Amino acid sequence: MKLATSLSLALQGLALPALLLAGTAHGADAPVVVTSIKPVHSLVAAIMQGVGKPELIVDGAASPHTYTMKPSNASALQSAKVVFWVGPGLEAFLEKPLEALGTDASIAELDKAQGLTKLKFREGGAFEAHDDGDGHEAHDHGKEADGHDHAAEAGDHDAHGHDDHGHGEFDTHLWLDPMNAKAMADEITTTLVAADPANALTYQANAKVLDDKLDALDVEIAGIVSPIKDKPFIVFHDAYQYFEHRYKVRVAGSITVSPESIPGAERISEIHKKVGDLGATCVFAEPQFQPRLVDVVLEGTKAKAGVLDPEAATLDAGPDLYFQLMRGIANNMKDCLSRES
After folding, report:
1. pLDDT in single tens digits along all 341 residues of the chain
2. How many angstroms separate the CA atoms of 282 and 235, rounded?
3. Most buried residue among 41, 66, 76, 258 by CB atoms closer than 10 A?
4. Residue-range definition of the domain harbouring residue 243
5. The whole model's pTM is what?
């Protein structure tokens, strides 16, 4: 009996290190996953929890609109098994590197995910309301916002003739609608399961948790912005159509179509007049770009200044970032638009 007991304890002692080694091997086998921007990284990180952590290219306060590839980014792409990006309409800097360096990786272009709502580009400046019923493509994914009076009618969404957005006709800030984030998460999960079937159950379980959290976030944000949704405001660049479309807030114009282009005097004058015509409202800057232009627009008006961060420049990367980003936009809109003149 003593011999059997000793043998059993010895085997248990051997089994524990073996289990630890197996866990280590499992972690080592996690695929190298590279993501382009923080919002995409956040969704991928949430789905990969318990398996591994994705790498991020556009980190810190950098913007995909003005980003330049680094040697470390090229190295990450060379070793990647999976790459997630929105697409060339947003991360144009990645187009050629992916062709040259990402040949051995599965490359998921998330602006092609099934179930996305896509909105066409606007010309920028002051968005004049007129009937534009076919100004967007909406694919029903079970949670589509009903009846919209502002974004769906917010100017001519014709993409042709844009020097700033030469890669496609749709606005690529897709993640600013949580229902689009759900569609992107589905594509991310499908891609990861195909690339790493050994961890499929973990990816799928995490995706279900994320899906439920995105539904709850959608309800939460609708409640935050409800008191101010009829108050018009100006943004630095036209990045907020999806938020606008989902929650019926009133973006009345943008200082620039894209941060890649500095607006001219005529555009600034047009926006300045729009702010005056609207009365007391808000003009929102972005942390990565020149606040001087916002100051010019505000000069001599009763408008207030605020900051919106659609690309999460001020947030730390990770699985919670997407939720912080969306709550931050909603709360900053509410705070500025609720202030007394």
Report:
1. 444 444 344 444 444 343 333 333 344 478 999 999 999 999 999 999 999 999 999 998 888 988 999 999 999 999 999 999 999 999 999 999 998 865 678 999 999 999 999 999 876 555 544 333 344 444 443 333 333 333 333 333 333 333 344 445 899 999 999 999 999 999 999 999 999 999 999 999 999 999 999 999 999 999 999 999 999 998 988 899 999 999 999 998 888 766 666 777 888 888 888 888 877 689 998 887 767 778 888 888 888 999 999 999 999 999 999 999 999 999 999 999 998 65
2. 8
3. 41
4. 118-171+228-338
5. 0.80
Residues 247 and 150 reside in one and the same domain: yes
Is 166 within the bounds of a domain? yes
Give helix 38-48 / helix 200-225 axis angle, nearest 10°.
130
- Do 263 and 333 lie in a common domain? yes
Indicate whether 18 belongs to any domain. Answer: no
Q: Are residues 240 and 277 in the same domain?
A: yes
Long-range (24+ apart) CB contacts under 8 A made by 133-138 are 136/245, 137/170
Establish if 150 belongs to a structural domain.
Answer: yes
Domain match, 107 and 122 both: no
Residue 12 domain-assigned? no
Name the domain count of the chain: 2
Q: Which residues contact 224 (CB under 8 A, 6 or more apart)?
A: 327, 330, 331, 334
The distance from CA 318 to its chain's CA centroid, rounded to whole angstroms, is 13
